[in-house]
Amino acid sequence: MNKPATGSATPPPSRNIKAIVHQNLARRRAAERRFRGYGLVAITLGLAFVVLMFGNIISKGLPAFWQTYIQVPITFDSTVLDPQGARDPQALANADYATLVRAGMRQLFPHVEGRLPLRALGGLISSDAAYELQRRIQDQPELLGSTQEVWLLASAAVDTFFKGNIDRTLPEAERPIKDNQIEWLDKLKTSGKIEKQFNAVLFQSGDSREPEQAGIRGALMGSFFTLLVTFLLSFPIGVATAVYLEEFAPKNRWTDIIEVNINNLAAVPSIVFGLLGLAVFINFFGLPRSAPLVGGLVLSLMTLPVIIIAGRAALTSVPPSIREAALGMGASKLQMVGHHVLPLAMPGMLTGSIIGMARALGESAPLLMIGMVAFIVDVPKNFLDPATVLPVQIYLWSDLPERAFVERTSAAIMVLLAFMILMNGLAILLRKRFERRW
Amino acid sequence: MIKHKLALAVAATILTATAYGQSARDYISIVGSSTVYPFTTAVAEQFGKANANFKTPKVESTGTGGGFKLFCGGVGVQHPDISNASRAIKKSEIETCAKNGVTEIVEINIGFDGIVLASSKKNKPMPLTIKDLWLALAKEVPDPATGKLVMNNFKTWKDINAALPANKIEVLGPPPTSGTRDAFVELVMDHGCKEFPAIKDLEKADEKKAKATCQTIREDGVFIEAGENDNLIVNKLVANPNALGIFGYSFLEENLDKIQGETINGVAPSFETIADGKYPVSRPLFVYAKKAHVGVIPGIKEFIAEFTSEKAMGDEGYLARKGLIPLPNAKRKQVAMDANALKVMAP
């Protein structure tokens, strides 16, 4: 009614709006640009940190995949190894193989004299060399009496030096490699008797206090057994719980309390589960300390809530029409769930479980309480052998004084990260391949 | 059906595991100090390699106190056989042990560990004394004029001792849960404060208060708790040339190209000065064995023999190469003899 009145006072409304929009346009665009800018900065910063972290770990850890070996002429002298000539395996196993290594090194450098220089010469080779020769004789007793050129593991100090991590210009007292050793190593290098080979030891042996002999096989097997127990326990229980709560349980105060508690458990610090494991599984049930079985039990307590929550989310995303159609066709409730809802929800449940397992793989704090933070040389063979896991191995190595453990720590982190990426990648793949959208 | 079988299998595993846990253990179980861990693990590995008929012992790093708690839990295969300690066993711990039936304990003093104060090589060396260190780190210090206790306000080393440089006081050290921290307090703080008449007077009047004054480390950001990881402290020292770090001698030895150990009371930390007792901040390291387990768990006697042998504990043994400072010759022989005879501690 009063439109004409205002119309006469101001310019026509269409031009008015256009002007206002025009006026604000620059400001709105600037705001949007700014917001995008912030986003970009945030992402770049995040990526920069990831690149920095990965770059640091990889640059430190990559050299650990190669290891320095020295070629030594070894005479498997039967007068040393088998004085009786009986070829008794027991006597052969206990023979003095260190003498052979020393003799081989002296053959390479015949001019070295005196106790201290000879010790320094012996220090170039890892203490595992003698056991390596013993293993060879055990595998091939026919080597006895022959002379072989054998590539022997160099000591950790030589390895660090050969990789360029020890500055040769430092005063002699400040480096683990002495002047005479550098001279010998240079000679070996010119004659091609020292080289870097793929570090198979890292993947084949358990822990060791000598960096060049230390490997992650024990920790990998420990992680494998622990996660197997975790999966076998938490997946069926988690799925059953999710299905029951979502499909069968009445909605009342009790189920509400259960739901709140499950959500709460998902946020409990993991060390608490470790304490629980110590009190219940070890002290009450008397299970052995340091066993992957106990580790798996503790970690499954930790992953259960994650799997239940993911499982329930997957079940709710299945549209009600599917349920109604199944029931309408005369299916029982169990048939409806078993034949229709669960198969459709399974990819989501698996994804949630895999992410929960990845979290369990990276966990070390709860394992401290149940004795899995330990030095274990023998590779575990079953669920009850003492074992450690990959993150714990990383923690233990990072705390050792020897410089050569730095690169091994980073190498172990790389292996752990590779498994994490693999597991998370699998979760994404499952989701992409099998997820149905309605 | 499958789920039933699975549940049965899990139940069966747990049952057999329980039976297994209570019946036999064929490897030695060792717990305790993270300072002794690098040495015991080296012996364990050698022992496992040299003896084909014994399994390699398992060595847990639980800390000295945590180790004794497990060790004193009782006699039986579920309890550990050997405990590492970066200090001697306390009276209260012996009592706990006795209460749980662990009465026969064999104490083995395996050697010494020096605690060093180190700084980056970029820094000039600072000749420190225990007195200076106490003044730098105590929460309350006697006022130079009146002798009354006041809050510690020293900001630079020059404030404490005119001979020292005017660098900011900044010390990175282990947290109170660490055995290294206990030893530092006992060897440096307790001794440093005794050099002041004011504290001596206080000691006569109120012994408890004097002890607390001696041992309390300042909390105004000068002493920084850097966690249990000594490699981390070394890296922080390289990044911050003004800072001093407190850690075990083996970490100094491994990083001589980056850091230097400060002299304390005129003595530089080195293998020789720690071994002959001239360097004032060193502590004995121990291993405790349960005699009741000898003969039950295979290999304990042989493991002790390996530990106390000359090729391990000796002057040029492999433990010395790992940074353990060996005992003097006569003492070492005595320790080896007593240990191999399984001589138990006096109750």
From TrEMBL, chain A:
The chain crosses the membrane at residues 37-58, 224-245, 265-287, 293-315, 336-358, 411-430. CDD domains: TM_PBP2 (cd06261). GO terms for cellular component: plasma membrane. PROSITE patterns: ABC_TM1 (PS50928). It is a multi-pass membrane protein. GO terms for molecular function: phosphate transmembrane transporter activity. Keywords: Cell membrane, Membrane, Transmembrane, Transmembrane helix, Transport. Gene3D superfamilies: MetI-like. Its main location: membrane. It is found in: Cell inner membrane; Cell membrane. GO terms for biological process: phosphate ion transmembrane transport. InterPro entries: DUF3333, MetI-like, MetI-like_sf, Phosphate_PstA. It holds the Pfam family BPD_transp_1. Residues 220-427 form the ABC transmembrane type-1 domain. Belongs to the binding-protein-dependent transport system permease family. CysTW subfamily. This is Phosphate transport system permease protein PstA.
From TrEMBL, chain B:
Residues 1-19 form the signal peptide. It comes from the Bacteria. Coiled coil: none annotated. CDD domains: PBP2_phosphate_like_2. SUPFAM superfamilies: Periplasmic binding protein-like II (SSF53850). Pfam families: PBP_like_2 (PF12849). Residues 21-310 form the PBP domain. Keywords: Signal. This is Phosphate transporter (ABC superfamily,peri-bind). It comes from Candidatus Competibacter denitrificans Run_A_D11. The lineage of its organism: Bacteria, Pseudomonadati, Pseudomonadota, Gammaproteobacteria, Candidatus Competibacteraceae.
